[in-house]
Amino acid sequence: MTENINEELISQEVESEIRVEIPWDEVVPVVQALMQKNEAVSQLGQLLVEAESKKDAIKERIGQTNEVLRISIEKVRKDHEISEDPAWELDLPEKEGDSAFFIKKSQ
User: Fold this and answer.
1) What is the reported pTM?
2) In this predicted model, what pLDDT tens digit does every residue of 60-105 receive, in sequence order?
């Protein structure tokens, strides 16, 4: 019973549909534009995947460099017996060859 009702509804929908045939040569520009759009979307997707991968690699490199910086500063502190108190900041020279200083900032 339900199956017959569904078939009737489907046939009514098809019967009420108005179709206008368009020759292929008239829709070629539409098809071409759609293909160009799909290609652009695909290229954008690839670009985003590549960018995300490069971003992850750069973030990893930054993390590794931060660790090298932390270890290097820690070594300089230890070698010069500077407290690990965060009030002590390393002031790097502006010119190569000049001395750096640990400066204790007042809180």
Assistant:
1) 0.58
2) 999 999 999 999 999 999 999 999 888 999 999 999 999 999 999 8
Phi-psi region of 105 (alpha: psi -120 to 50; beta: other; left: phi over 0): beta
| Alpha helix segments (H runs only) across the chain | 2-15, 24-79
Tokens of 99: 């001395």
Q: Report the 10 Å Cβ neighbour count for 77.
A: 16
C-alpha dihedral (68, 69, 75, 76), degrees to nearest 10 = 150
3-state secondary structure of 97: coil
β-bridge mates for residue 41, sequence order: none
Yes or no: say if 42 and 36 are a contact pair by the CB < 8 Å rule. Answer: no
CB 77 within 8 A of CB 102: yes
CB atoms within 10 A of CB 2: 6
